[in-house]
């Protein structure tokens, strides 16, 4: 029981801390093809499959919560630099339990105004099962050939985002 409580405390501390900004982590999946993630759009009805078939760009998949301040910080950095990031497709992935807050997030960041930003709901927890993220935001960067290049945990700086998207 003590071990379970210690694990929960550690996991909570890791998930909520971001003192040093984003860090690149090794997943063992680097260089592998992007798996197919079957999700829904924010209406939780319309099905989408990631990678998006028409997408010939780099892909930036960000696992996030619409109420997470670090996720909002990273989103703002992306949107503030969207002109420089036109060749990257951004797919923000959230869990179904966050659906009640997603419309406020969409409205706050005006994500529908950007053709290269999509928001998906991981109703089947496919992304979570594949990557097992312990912290948000959790960003997986794929090149145009859909090979995993890097994974970041924590809010990425403007320069980290721009450099990661040059892959």
UniProtKB/TrEMBL annotation:
It comes from the Bacteria. It is found in: Cell envelope. GO terms for cellular component: cell envelope. Pfam families: Redoxin. One of its GO terms (biological process) is cytochrome complex assembly. Keywords: Cytochrome c-type biogenesis, Redox-active center. The keyword ATP-binding does not apply. InterPro entries: Redoxin (IPR013740), Thioredoxin-like_sf (IPR036249), Thioredoxin_CS (IPR017937). One of its GO terms (molecular function) is oxidoreductase activity. Residues 29-160 form the Redoxin domain. This is Redoxin domain-containing protein. It comes from Filimonas effusa.
């Amino acid at each position: 029981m003590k071990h379970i409580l210690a694990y929960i405390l550690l996991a909570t501390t890791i998930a909520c801390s971001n003192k040093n900004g984003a860090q690149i982590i090794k997943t063992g999946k680097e260089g592998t093809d992007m798996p197919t993630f079957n999700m829904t759009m924010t209406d939780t009805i319309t099905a989408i499959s990631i990678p998006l078939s028409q997408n010939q760009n780099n892909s930036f998949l960000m696992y996030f919560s619409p109420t997470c301040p670090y996720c909002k910080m990273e989103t703002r950095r992306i949107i503030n630099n969207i002109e420089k990031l036109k060749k990257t497709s951004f797919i923000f992935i959230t869990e179904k339990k966050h659906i009640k807050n997603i419309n406020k997030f969409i409205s706050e960041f005006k994500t529908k105004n950007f053709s290269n930003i999509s928001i998906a709901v991981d109703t089947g927890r496919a992304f979570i099962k594949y990557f097992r993220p312990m912290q948000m935001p959790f960003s997986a960067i794929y090149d145009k050939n859909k090979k995993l290049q890097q994974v970041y945990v924590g809010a990425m700086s403007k320069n980290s985002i721009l450099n990661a998207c040059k892959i």
